[in-house]
Amino acid sequence: MINLNAELKEVKTAGIAGHIRPDGDCVGSCIGLYLYLKKYFPEIKTEVYLEEFPEAFRFLEGSDQVQHNCDQTKEYDVFFCLDCGDEKRLGNAVKYFNTAKKTICIDHHISNQAFAQVNYIVPDASSTSELIFNLLEETKITKEMAEALYMGIAHDTGVFKFSNTSSRTMEIAGKLMDKGIDFSTIVDDTYFIKSYIQNQIMGRAMLESIMMLDGRVIFSAIRQKDMDFYGVGTMDLDGIVQQLRNTRGVEAALFLYETAPQEYKVSMRSNGKIDVSQIACYFGGGGHVKAAGCTMQGSVYDVVNNLVKHIDKQLKQIKVTN
Ligand code: 5GP
Ligand code: MN
Structure pTM? Predict the structure, then answer.
């Protein structure tokens, strides 16, 4: 574990950034740390960078101070990369990582190779927000910080349901609840409630899903023209791969969306037997054992066939070892 006070000694400027296409844990952990540094280290000029994130996260205090462009040249005394498995995933903020005097990575991705100078990486942790909680002085955590961290933990655990949820996770969630947050509304408004078009595109993805390998793999793909038709953006596709995984008998769910002609962003989920992080890493991506992603070139069928080959190989190995 790292000591925040020691790391911030004599620091005058600090930058914080998370991964591209920020999710709940990424935004929650970045804003949680940002609010804490702003309040308790006022002598440090702290700035936070994130790509555009879902409107529902805007209730968080400090979300209006998040910067979305990295055009200026800056050299931070310390630069924090949160919830980010590798340098590439920092997007444009990588330039601040490269120029910073000291870099600190706080993350829970199993694919993380400890790419910063100082690393606090715990693959067993539910979320980066849980790790941020560990670094902060509990009594100093305000309600607003608690809202950000609770949202992050709730999102990365599928609302305390995935196997990354530990008794420690629940203990931390309880401590955050004690700060007076409206935990029920946070979860509803940021996780469960979908817009009408989000539900429509989800329905479309379910309708067109295909089972493979005798029902052990399910996949669905959304093309750019479908997104245009429904008027949705990539941020509206959250939750689709999770819903695909909730199909009885399925070991792995694959969801693809087109990012450019012949280019697909792949989201993978496993129900436990398949290690999707290994497959994502093979194709230049990363993630966790049960949730991982990568970007691949080719037609939908090229991409799916390549992925399914790896899943099939893993399933056969499991059979052999059993
Ligand atoms: P999702 O499918 O929700 O986009 O991502 C699942 C998990 O895999 C997340 O923890 C995310 O950070 C990670 N992930 C998704 N895509 C990539 C990728 O292209 N590279 C890496 N390193 N990790 C990814
Ligand atoms: Mn995370």
Answer: 0.94
